[in-house]
């Protein structure tokens, strides 16, 4: 997993509540056997109509090309627990999702896949939605800066370390390799 660095980007405003994982990546695209390749299917049913890009959907707006920050409304990532939803966001290029609330499983899946989910108040989110310039997200200082706004966000120390160091579950386990080896040696049968 790639270590998280400071992100500075135009934010893509997805002005919808209760976006579920079926909307993030529809079920018909879950046949891939690897974690990559899902970005092309992100919000597919909203982005395309009979395979043609819909001009009225935010991801098809050239102003948001290469955006690394997604702004979303309440209860983002609800629905099924599929990890594919986070894979699609990451593969598309989003490294940060800012919302007022997330479904718990989705929230944890973000950290495990290198995407930073940030919870902010409705007031702050509304201000971020109105900004047309770049937003800076700094994980080390746990801050968001944009157009005169500076706000701190909370993150559990464990998740912060995971993202800053780019550790997946296997890498976290290997941090304890010496203890694992010592345990295995002491419990040989």
Automatic annotation (TrEMBL):
This is 3-isopropylmalate dehydratase. Belongs to the LeuD family. LeuD type 1 subfamily. Keywords: Amino-acid biosynthesis, Branched-chain amino acid biosynthesis, Isomerase, Leucine biosynthesis, Lyase. Pathway: Amino-acid biosynthesis; L-leucine biosynthesis; L-leucine from 3-methyl-2-oxobutanoate: step 2/4. The keyword DNA-binding does not apply. GO terms for molecular function: 3-isopropylmalate dehydratase activity; isomerase activity. It is an enzyme of class 4 (lyase). Catalyzes the isomerization between 2-isopropylmalate and 3-isopropylmalate, via the formation of 2-isopropylmaleate. It catalyses: (2R,3S)-3-isopropylmalate = (2S)-2-isopropylmalate. It holds the Pfam family Aconitase_C. HAMAP family: LeuD_type1 (MF_01031). Heterodimer of LeuC and LeuD. GO terms for cellular component: 3-isopropylmalate dehydratase complex. GO terms for biological process: L-leucine biosynthetic process. Its EC number is 4.2.1.33. CDD domains: IPMI_Swivel. Residues 1-121 form the Aconitase A/isopropylmalate dehydratase small subunit swivel domain.
């Amino acid at each position: 997993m790639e270590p998280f660095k400071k992100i500075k980007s135009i934010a893509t405003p997805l002005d919808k509540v209760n976006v579920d994982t079926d909307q993030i990546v529809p079920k018909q695209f879950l046949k891939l056997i690897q974690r990559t390749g899902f970005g092309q299917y992100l919000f597919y049913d909203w982005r395309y109509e009979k395979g043609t890009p819909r001009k009225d959907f935010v991801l098809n707006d050239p102003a948001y090309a290469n955006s690394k920050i997604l702004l979303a409304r309440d209860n983002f990532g609800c629905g099924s627990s599929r990890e594919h939803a986070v894979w699609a966001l990451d593969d598309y290029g989003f490294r940060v999702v800012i919302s007022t609330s997330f479904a718990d499983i989705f929230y944890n899946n973000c950290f495990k896949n290198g995407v930073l989910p940030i919870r902010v108040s409705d007031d702050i989110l509304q201000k971020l939605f109105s900004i047309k310039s770049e937003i800076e997200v700094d994980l080390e200082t746990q801050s968001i800066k944009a157009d005169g706004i500076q706000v701190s966000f909370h993150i559990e120390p464990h998740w912060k370390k995971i993202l800053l160091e780019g550790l997946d579950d296997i890498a976290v386990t290997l941090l304890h390799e010496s203890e694992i080896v010592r345990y295995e040696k002491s419990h040989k049968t």
